[in-house]
Design brief:
The chain is mostly helical. About 70% of the residues lie in helices and about 0% in strands. Strand 1 and strand 2 form a beta hairpin. InterPro entries: DoxX, DoxX-like_oxidoreductase.
């Protein structure tokens, strides 16, 4: 069901005239025998899918080939991240909202001025805020001073979220900014081009290079943390899905039901609107929990990719640009996999140790003979 339900209901419908009690609404839906049967069937199907995926792990060679292929794309991840955060940041600046369409730049300026009147008032006029976003977005798209620009972007989000809580709808941004601090611009990027010119013998730029050894020193200092890049991205994507499934669906069912009514979603899948809301919320939250745990991570990222793709192209007035960041985040998680601190890594290590033991004992299945 979630494939037809927009992740950010705030972007496509106004607040309902009368709010519903979330717990009462959900209990009313699940207490209906037909709905309870549908939920039980959906849960059983999900468990069977997980069991099938568990059985296929280490037994289906196609999955190993797919994983090896995706590992070959790792050097493209910085470029992927820059596009996925640079485009929507640049677009937000031109469109007049602060990363999330639910947060106009004018309201951000007012909130910051009220919170810090003596410090920020001259610096947070709406045109200045929009220019900041445009500058950050453009620099990330070109890959210019990527780490420093990403740090500024993270600071812009962290500074504003206390006075504009709706910015949590764009909670993937600090994750993407943090990831770019770890990876740098990658290639192709302006950073790489300038670095190559600065390193070449006899170039004029080498003589005046203002950065000198700093890029190399920062890159070297961040090497130990870079192994956690897949973990950061996975947790960010999983947290976003849990947050949106719970807050946008299960805790705000009346507004989510307006989305179902607006787009006639009961004509797509013939269930009552309440079942759409609860089913979508539970699906997104469940998917998010799988990603947080790092279990079947690439499969979960692929499912997230499908959900977001259907949202982007299935709903005519959903702001596409506002979803590009999550779309890119899912793509990066699909490419990199679970990373450290995940159940996938734990299971892979166990399979590897079992295979080593089999080879030591002359097990034909372990050697592939």
């Amino acid at each position: 069901m979630s494939a037809f339900e927009p992740a950010h209901v705030d972007y496509v419908v106004p607040p309902p005239s009368e709010a519903a009690d979330a717990l009462e609404y959900v209990l009313g839906v699940v207490s209906d025998p037909a709905n309870a049967l549908l939920l039980a069937g959906g849960t059983l199907a999900a468990l069977l899918a997980l069991a099938g995926a568990t059985y296929a792990r280490g037994r289906v060679p196609d999955l190993a080939v797919l994983a090896d292929t995706l590992d070959g794309y790792r050097d493209l991840v910085p470029w992927m991240l820059r596009l996925s955060v640079g485009l929507p940041t640049l677009g937000a600046g031109f469109a007049g909202y602060y990363l999330s369409p639910a947060v106009p730049t004018g309201s951000v300026s007012e909130a910051l001025t009220a919170a810090y009147p003596d410090v920020l008032a001259p610096l947070v006029a709406p045109p200045v805020v929009r220019l900041l976003l445009i500058g950050v977005g453009f620099a990330l798209l070109t890959g210019f001073l990527t780490r420093a620009t990403a740090a500024v972007g993270a600071l812009l989000w962290l500074t504003v979220v206390p006075v504009a809580p709706d910015l949590l709808l764009a909670m993937e941004y600090p994750v993407l900014f943090g990831a770019l601090v770890l990876t740098g611009g990658g290639r192709p990027s302006a950073d790489e081009m300038f670095a190559r010119v600065a390193q070449a013998e006899g170039t004029y730029y080498r003589r005046i290079d203002p950065l000198g050894e700093w890029p190399r020193r920062v890159r070297t200092a961040l090497i130990p943390a870079r192994r956690y890049l897949p973990t950061l991205l996975r947790v960010g994507l999983g947290g976003a899905f849990v947050f949106l499934g719970v807050t946008q669906k299960l805790l705000d069912p009346a507004r989510a039901a307006l989305v179902v009514e607006k787009y006639g979603l009961t004509g797509v899948v013939p269930v009552e609107p309440g079942m759409w809301v609860v089913g979508a919320g539970l699906t997104e939250a469940g998917l998010g929990l799988l990603l947080l745990a790092g279990l079947f991570t690439r499969g979960g990222a692929a499912l997230a990719f499908v959900v977001l793709t259907t949202t982007l192209f299935g709903l005519p007035d959903d702001p596409v640009l506002a979803h590009v960041s999550v779309f890119g985040l899912a793509s990066a998680v699909f490419t990199l996999g679970a990373g450290p601190l995940s159940l996938d890594r734990l299971l892979a290590d166990r399979l590897a140790s079992r295979g080593d033991a089999g080879r030591a004992e002359g097990d034909p299945a372990a050697t592939g003979d």
